[in-house]
Amino acid sequence: MGKGTQALRLRLELKVPHVSTGDILREAVKRGTPLGRRAGSFMEAGKLVPDDLMGDLIAARLAQPDAAPGFILDGFPRTAAQVAILDRVLESVGEPLDRVLALVAAEKEIVRRLSGRRICPACGSVFHVESRPSASPGACDGCGTALVQRPDDEEKVIRDRLGVFEAQTLPVAAIYRERGLLREVDAAGDSDAVFAALKIALATP
Asked: Residue 138 has what pLDDT?
């Protein structure tokens, strides 16, 4: 299981919200908030939402009461420039980072996990052709809808994304390593083993 699954497990364990940038965007656009309308204009044009606007969306989410005890931030920052934006956001809400967790796996394993993922477009259930296949091949166990592979889970797209990760996101890890916040966790094991390692990483000074 990937970082999204582990983040959801940590949410239940720590009783704090899982703040996913993708979810923030979709919810803001759906609700038609001023920030959502601004973000939606970029998304409709096929453009990336600007970093500063993402920072505003995250700041608005972290200002909500349920995030006061803490939060799990997923999907941001992805670049050194976004680190600086997040620093400003966290200063504004008075919530410093306790830990930065990085799940580490070999490229072959990442491609295998992501390319095998299948999604139910109706109910959102997630399956995997190897590790979590549906009972009826190609159909959702919950509602029977035909499962699909998301375009960004195709192997070529995954490898392109990994190239971007190497260029942009590894410097983010270096920044947080220098600050003493980064903890790297081996993601090659099963879901329970990775979750246990994440909990240890959170507790390690």
From this structure: 93
**Which listed residue (31, 88, 150, 179) is catalytic?**
150
Domain boundaries, the chain: 1-96, 98-205
Same fold? 1-96, 98-205: yes
Architecture of domain 98-205: 3-Layer(aba) Sandwich (3.40)
Does the annotation count 3 as an active-site position?
A: yes
From the list 190, 200, 161, the residue with the least C-alpha distance to 75 is: 161
Question: pLDDT grade, residue 141 (50/70/90)?
Answer: very high
pLDDT at 21: 87
Query: Which tens digits make up the pLDDT trace of 187-198?
Result: 887 889 999 999
Is 31 one of the annotated active-site residues of the chain? no
Write the DSSP assignment of 121-137 as a string of letters.
TTT--EEETTTB--SST
Q: Class assignment of domain 1-96?
A: alpha beta
Residue 99: active-site member? no
Cα separation of 161 and 152, whole Å?
Answer: 9
The pTM for the full model equals 0.74
Told to judge if 161 belongs to the known catalytic residues of this protein, a careful annotator would answer: yes
Q: Is 38 a catalytic residue?
A: no
One of 26, 78, 99, 112 is an active-site residue; which one? 78
Given the residues 9, 61, 113, 117, the one annotated as active site: 117
